[in-house]
Design goal:
By secondary structure, the chain is α+β, with helices and mostly antiparallel strands. The chain contains 7 helices and 7 strands, in the order H-H-H-H-E-E-E-E-E-E-H-H-E-H. Helix 4 packs across helix 7.
């Protein structure tokens, strides 16, 4: 029987994706440049000799998330409060990894304690270790324990393809920069309503304003693009948003709110458990 070229590569990808459980099995990988980094058959091993599904499929590196260790020496009061909050957020936050949320909440509390974040009760977190085919941005109402928005978000073309692998604060790197951000003012740009971002981590994302890293809409994060290519396209370093959600997301994060772009290698002085505990004890999530 004649087998079409790429048949086993496609089948092998589907089996690997299903094993990971990231919801990518239904994605049709496009031949476009946007999807050039999708794992191919040579990365996933030789094709099986019959049509039976293998009993064990090795996970491709491109879909294996980077482990995130719990923060050391974090006071129990903070850890328990974060766990309770995560439970209150419900199923819509199920894919928000507890360790990532823990970092986001600790940084938010520490920044509030130091007066670097003026808009209390709102926290946005993007897990940039997840593939761009997944909804990996959450905007949270901390006081009510609710998910305000859950959406796709793009990473910079210098950071990788399906997965963001490289992160940089350098001007013209076209990379996503990890760390905590403070939302700034809005303006009407070529992408419509946009919101400036100020990086709060020295040498990690503090070039954000000079790099024009902003929240804005992009067609390459639209439903049509995702359906066609199986993943989002790439920005020049901005956390670009879906056209049908961007305005509501930007308006839910007023000036002075907190955003974390999380990913492998994240380091921040704001991951200060002691400061977070003091803020939580005196003002809660406000």
């Amino acid at each position: 029987m004649r087998t079409e070229p790429g048949f086993w590569g496609k089948k092998w990808r589907q089996l690997a994706v299903a094993a990971v459980g990231l919801g990518l099995a239904g994605c049709n990988v496009s031949a476009s440049e946007n999807n050039a980094a999708a794992p191919n058959a040579s990365q996933l091993g030789p094709a099986p000799t019959d049509t039976a599904a293998p009993t064990a499929t090795p996970l491709p590196d491109s879909l294996a998330l980077t482990p995130v260790a719990p923060l050391p020496a974090l006071p129990d009061s903070v850890r328990q409060a974060v766990r309770l909050l995560h439970k209150q957020l419900g199923p819509e936050a199920a894919a928000l990894r507890p360790e990532v949320m823990e970092r986001a909440c600790v940084g938010y509390l520490a920044l509030r304690h130091e007066g670097r974040i003026q808009q209390g009760g709102v926290l946005a977190v993007a897990d940039m270790d997840l593939p761009s085919s997944e909804k990996r941005l959450w905007v949270l109402d901390l006081r009510r324990g609710q998910v305000l928005h859950h959406s796709h978000v793009a990473h910079g073309r210098g950071s990788g393809k399906l997965r963001a692998r490289r992160f940089s604060n350098t001007i013209k790197s076209a990379c996503t920069a990890l760390g905590f951000y403070r939302t700034q003012d809005t303006y009407g740009g070529k992408h419509g309503l946009s919101r400036r971002l100020r990086g709060l981590d020295a040498r990690q994302n503090d070039n954000a304003l000079r790099r024009y890293v902003v929240l804005h809409a992009a067609d390459y994060v639209s439903r049509q693009h995702l359906q066609r290519h199986g993943q989002a396209g790439y920005s020049r370093g901005c956390p670009a948003l879906p056209p049908d959600q961007y305005r509501a997301i930007i308006n839910s994060m007023p000036e002075g709110a907190c955003l974390l772009l999380a990913g492998p290698g994240l380091e921040s002085k704001w991951l200060d458990g002691a400061a977070a505990a003091r803020q939580l004890a005196t003002r809660g999530w406000r």
